[in-house]
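Fold sample X.
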Amino acid sequence: MKFNIETDHKPLISLLGSKAISDLPPRIQRFRMRLMRYEYEIYHVPGKNLYTADALSRAPQQDMSKEEEEFQTVVEAYVDSIIETLPASESLLEEIRRKLHEDSVLRIVMRYCEEGWPGLEKPSINIVTRPFWQIREELSVCQGLLMRGNRLVIPTALRADMLQRIHEGHQGILKCRERVRNSIWWPGINCETEDLVKSCSVCVKNRPDHAEPLRPTKFPDRPWEMLATDLFHLKNDNYLLVVDYFSRYVEKLESTTSQTIINHLKSMFARHGIPDTLVSDNGPQYASSVFQTLSRNYGFRLQTSSPHYPQGNGEAERAVQTVKRLLRNATDPYLALLAYRATPLKNGCSPAELLMGRKLKTTLPENPRNYYLKWPDLGKVHHLEEQSRQNQKLNFDFAKKARPVSLLKAGETVWVKGEKRGTTGTVVTRTQHSDRSYIIETPKGSIRRNRRHLAPASMLKDEVFASDTFDQDMDIRNNVNPMSENARNKTSETVSHTTRNQVATKSVNEKLTCVDQNTSHITRSGRVSKPIERLNL
């Protein structure tokens, strides 16, 4: 059977038409299911044009027919089955019922659901219930419980406890939202769930480090301008490695004591000259006063990376991998190093050509003319190297989903992630070499750490949870006027719920109070939309 339905009640068009059955109140669900056997289309017709239905609605029958009584019984049975299948114990449901009747706001909402909602304007609804106005078609009262579709509406007094239950297992924001999507609801639950996860001390302390956008080192203008050095251990021996940023030319020397390192570096400086910058990690050999004296006397700048952050000395770390592989596999380590220095890089030139302007003679036979002094096209080398660095940055940022993080201010309290338990500290200042490296004052003294190892302690403060009854959910933010301070004081309830991970959530209404409700509104994304200012003559 196919027929058309005309109604002057616009909410019925979505309730009986486009809206999914799972999103409907239980009573409407049953009614919609009975209509599924028919094929129909529903239209809106103004009441003044709906003559017959409008006239009959003014003289309703006082007594229900037998069919209507049977239908009412079936609907009530269906609603009871919905309540029975809720994943909650009877004691918890009874506590929710009791708190609902004690909640000054939800008590009014339940009365509106049973007696009918007044108009938004004059006569207007109670101002404290306006967050529920846009979803009024989805709200219903079933066995003393306030429902939004098949979801329980939680009273203010139980929301703090429900938030802790939502975050059991310390899952992320999306997983926690999925847990509540088909179970419970209250205005602002999405925002409060997000704030809960972000401010959970356990989650913050154990959250995996997120990659920041890659910052490739600028390619030097000339050979031996910028060097990187590192120490490594292989086959029970310690080695010193020095690599040139321009040519990738590698020097490998044994022994790693401070004085021996200084002597080896002096020997290299005597052969190739003194660099402008020497990059190293924060090993004790490089942090010693003797090495600082060498830096001053020879006139080069010592640039160190943050502890436990090898990416800060990435050129040397990558060269260590290459040299380790050569020494581990070669029978003659010197021939292996010679082969590396004579092999062309991606830019088409070997490290020896870029450093000394000539090819090295190896065990491979070659035309003697190739050993003559001949500098490569340095302009082409610069172009290829810069292009390679740009591609590396694009690939890294895309693969790691890198995003920038906020800078820390002096005096800010942070959580310092450590290899074991970590500790709290206070930001003293940023280092002069990088805005991602900070000096942190901890109970055990001053330390230096990269921003990647620091979590702002504003997320870790243990505060009593305060929930505002009138927080707006992300899907009903549009066109909701803020409450007055007097109304909020009369109706909101502040509930303290002390747990191991106490949190403080921000109310959307706190943002709304500073907005002129007559000229502005809050968009779905939380942005304040203001009208265009025009010349008013």
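Fold sample Y, listed below.
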Amino acid sequence: MSLSTDTMKPLAGLRPKLEPWEVIKWTDSQLSSMYKDWGIYFDRTQNLAASMQYFTKSLDIYQYDTETLRRRGCIKRKEARAPDALLDSKKAKEILRQYNPKLFDPNVNLEVCDSLYESNRLEDSMRSLHQNLKVFSHSQAQKVLDRLNVITENFHDSLSDATAPAVHRLIDKMTLDKANQPKYEKPECDVLSILENEPELLSPLEKRRRKREFKIYNQNYLHKCWTDASFLKSIRENPNLLIDQFTESSTHLKSLTEERYKVVRTFTKMLHTRCPKYCRQIHKYPNEELHQKYQQENLFRIQYQTRRNMFKILRNIRSLIRAGKLHKLTTFVEEVMGDYVTIKTNRIMPWKFEFINEVYNYLGLARINEYKIPSDMKVLTGRQRLLTLFRLPTDLGISQTKARDSILRELVRRTNETDLKAERFKFLTTRYEYRMRFAKYPIERSYLLHELAQAHLDNNSFDTCCLLARQSIDEALKGRHYIWAVLSALVACKAHAILGKVEKQKEMLTEAFKMAKKLKNIDLCLFIDICLKVNTEEIELKRQLITPEGSLRRRQRRSGSSFENSPSETSVHASNSP
């Protein structure tokens, strides 16, 4: 008994993994029908992804099945993919027309109309419905008439006489925005390059306005589900969900959230096309006088609440000043002025300018009161006395030596840990520079420049600190805000004291003394006057060291110190002497 060579050959590799029902050799028509039935089943159970998968498998086997194309188009419409659904339904209609012109399927034609409608092409959908109305029978025409009534109502909501004023206002606003847009100019560049797309820089007020509009938009069309849409928008870039260490899951979750949010936005745009927001406003308030009365009452309520909040803020500032909590006061003022006052318009806060001046003056006076002569001040040399007056560390040389000795340990530590001081400096500078772009008043710009100078001083960027302090003084003098001019001058004096620039220190202290006289603050004038005298002593000491007598005295001092630092030699000479 002889066996064929095919049966004697061993199987190479592993057998393919097959489901139990895949072992049987089904025909293509049977497989296509099975996939189609499974797609219909999963469509009933709202498992759209599985339904789409099986309909696609069925069409891969037999691509001319019009019923499967129509059902897959329905699934795509449920997934907010109306343009793709329109392609499937048009393809099914073309197949019917090409292979059997006498055969007419009303479901396919209605699917084309529905896809056009959900693609926000209302005019094309109405035109297609009128064409189908000619070929549909009396029993089939009712579905077409229902759809025509819906589209007619959509046009009435958008372009009726009641909505004409709102439409004209919208058209005027769009025309004005288009006219204000800068014209595109082709850059003169000989090299083929990719132009950098600058990100749109929005003011805090504009950001708040867009956030409010987004909330109202979702509330109009999603009702109580608007919170879900807002949550879905916020988690798209949330680091708690998209963890960098989990590369595979983070990629999948990012694509999933982006896809789901895109579906929500597509459905809301479809609802907005059928009934614009101005029309919903008219339906909600049919009586115009009642609507204006409601808006006026709401405006008065917000104005009154804002006024109460302003008085509460001022009371908190006064209590913090009385308690002497300067650091907490600075943090509170920055939060209030950066996060609350910047998003209020002059209509809501008519006393905005007065309130800004009041808050910044309170903060400036509290900081000026910190510049006092310490009662326990010991007799020190000129520079150390100046550093003590400015409440700066006097052991700068020792600290620098220690920093140089521990630089290797610091580098190792920073490779494993985040430098919190550098992160804080980066955060503060970014925040202040962003606020500087939209600051209107000189006192606000002077405050922001002063804070930037203080941040650079804390970060040991002394030259930048002096430059920003000078800019802050110029801004303060524009509005005659001498408090912040003096404070900025004293910040520059701190930088000069650390660097040991006594001549520039003298100029800045003299300028600060002139501005302090205008404030009529005796304690401040006395403090600056003592700083001037200490700085003058330092200048005289340096001049004496530069003269020949001073250089001789310095050499004698050095030789004396070297003699005192060598006790072993003196003991040897003493032992050898008789």
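Sample Y note: The first helix runs from residue 5 to 8.
Also: Residues 1-8, 398-404, 560-578 have pLDDT under 50 and may be disordered.
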